[in-house]
Specification:
The chain is an alpha/beta fold. The chain has a domain at 10-170 and 202-231 and 264-282: NAD(P)-binding Rossmann-like Domain (Rossmann fold), CATH 3.40.50. The chain contains ten helices and 14 strands. The protein has helices at residues 22-31, 55-60, 82-90, 93-99, 136-153, 176-185, 205-217, 236-246, 273-276, 287-296, and strands at residues 10-15, 35-39, 49-52, 66-72, 105-111, 158-163, 165-167, 190-193, 199-200, 202-204, 225-228, 234-235, 252-255, 267-268.
Amino acid sequence: MTPAIDGSAKVVIVNGAGGFLGCRVVADFLRRGVRVIALGAPVPARPGLFYARDLGTALTLLPDAELAACVALASASPLADPAEQTAITLGQVLPIMKALEGVCRFVAIGSAAEYGSALRTATALNETHPRSPQSAYGHAKTLLMDQIETVHHQGRDALGLRLFSAVGPHMSSRSLWGAVEAQVSAGKTDIETQSLGGARDILPADEAAAIITTLALAPRRLPPVINVGSGHATPLRPLVHSVLHRHGVALRLAERCMQSATKPDYDIVSDISLLRRFYKVQSPLPVESLARYIVEGVCDV
């Protein structure tokens, strides 16, 4: 039986603690001296980290401790079908938000996919920019952020962090970077990717985790939704070439769908003016340094 958490401790619940971003969020909370209850799938034991299979069990662990926040990171893969998107992104997250009403700050993660892949503009996207999701993933995230805004305006301490692109080692093979790494690990020399036209707002996963933990613990009331990114347009094609170069072998890149003259390259970049009011965003990494971080997890600062 898991012992109750000391009443003097500050505690957060993290749903999706074992995922690519979740493990980094947990590590950053622990670094700050915050106790973490991992909700859902079991995670490796660490000092200060507790596990609960469901929310009811989690609440029994803190009869006297302060529950500061719940961070819901559980999300379906962007390539999952609509039913899975609804079941995970909405079906898992919204019941937890409702159950913790009036108890603590609730933080959920949105996505740049809410703006839609059809968007073709170099304009930085702020929180009020019109959204037009083109995928089941984007639609699910849009509905989630809409719910966050609704309960926030009703007086609830709820926060949506619309994360653009967080990258780093050990990403899912369904992601662009994870797919590249999987092909390299499999010994392929012809590396296939999606179209790499234009630029994207790319943030090291460790900085994304630091932003999430900082805002989850911020003492002041925050806006309902904040865009989280670097505010910088990193060109995809040179970055992927740099990632391949770091592997030190002869690799050829083959894009499956090259952009045509009638379908120009485009940028998706976050306007982080609002984020800067609550967090000191680091300077964007140059392409070579970002490639090293993606491959090795090391930041050249």
